[in-house]
Amino acid sequence: MTLAPAMPQNPNFTPKKWPKQARSRLSFDAMVDACARILRKEGYEGLTTNHIAKVAGVGIGTLYDSFPDKESVVAVLAERLMAASMAKMQAAFAESRNMGPWPGVVRLTEQAVANVVEERKLSYVLLRQIPFVMTLPMVATWRTAMTELAQDIRIAAGATINLPAPKEDTWLIAQMLFNAILEIGFLDTSEEERRALTIGLARLTYRMAVGRDPMEDGATV
């Protein structure tokens, strides 16, 4: 007989309390950083509250003062990673507004893949090995923000975009891109091959959005 997994005691995966003083912030950040180090090196199977406390250099009591369980530490880590990724995408979007359609698509696609590659091991563990991460409110917010960014790109592109149902089609393209970008970033391959796949994805995105290949518009790879 297989028993169903127990429901988490902390279904929102939130800390017990957020640090207010400098010293407590240092300990809090050390525990979140320790969680990242363990996940990069040992994966989710190697993560325990005792291990986090040991790597962070704090007592287990200090950990339990702030976090009810290891999942809540993971949740804070995931939130920080997503926030950093979104900030970089927004900066890339601001840059792309001064570019033509094709260079803009390339710039944004390259940044999205670079975000994954920068923390490839950690992102893989969080998004592929820990099922509850994709259900976290902050991850849902991140995905919504990415979709909204895609809509902003569509609006900024104006008449360049050639989609039968612009808003709905842009949403679908954004969902496909999300998974394709992760796969390219996670792939164990050479930087040359990753670059080729990234440009290929940008080219496909352009064709879907504009209705023709960028090379037909005189673009170069």
Structural features:
single chain; 221 residues; mainly alpha; Arc Repressor Mutant, subunit A; Tetracycline Repressor, domain 2; 2 domains; 9 helices; 69% helix; elongated; disordered N terminus
**What is the radius of gyration computed over CA atoms, rounded to a whole number of angstroms?**
20 Å
CATH superfamily grouping of the largest domain: Tetracycline Repressor, domain 2
Q: What is the domain total for the residues? A: 2
Provide the structure class: mainly alpha
CATH top level assignment of the largest domain: Mainly Alpha
Largest sheet descriptor:
none
Helix content: 55-70%
* Number of separate strands: 0
The end-to-end span amounts to 57 Å
Estimated share of beta-strand residues = under 5%
Order of helices and strands: HHHHHHHHH
Shape: elongated
As residue ranges, the low-confidence spans are 1-7
Instruction: Give the helix tally.
Output: 9
CATH topology of the largest domain, by name, is Tetracycline Repressor, domain 2
Instruction: Output mean pLDDT.
Output: 85
Question: Could you walk me through the main structural features you see in this protein, from its secondary elements to its overall organization?
Answer:
There is one protein chain. With 221 residues, the chain is mainly alpha-helical. It has two domains: 22-68, Arc Repressor Mutant, subunit A (Orthogonal Bundle); 78-215, Tetracycline Repressor, domain 2, CATH 1.10.357.10. 69% of the residues lie in helices and 0% in strands. It has nine helices and no strands. Helix 4 (70-96) packs antiparallel against helix 5, helix 5 (101-118) crosses helix 9 and helix 7 (137-157) crosses helix 8. The longest helix has 27 residues, at 70-96. 27% of the residues are buried. The model is unreliable at 1-7 (pLDDT under 50).
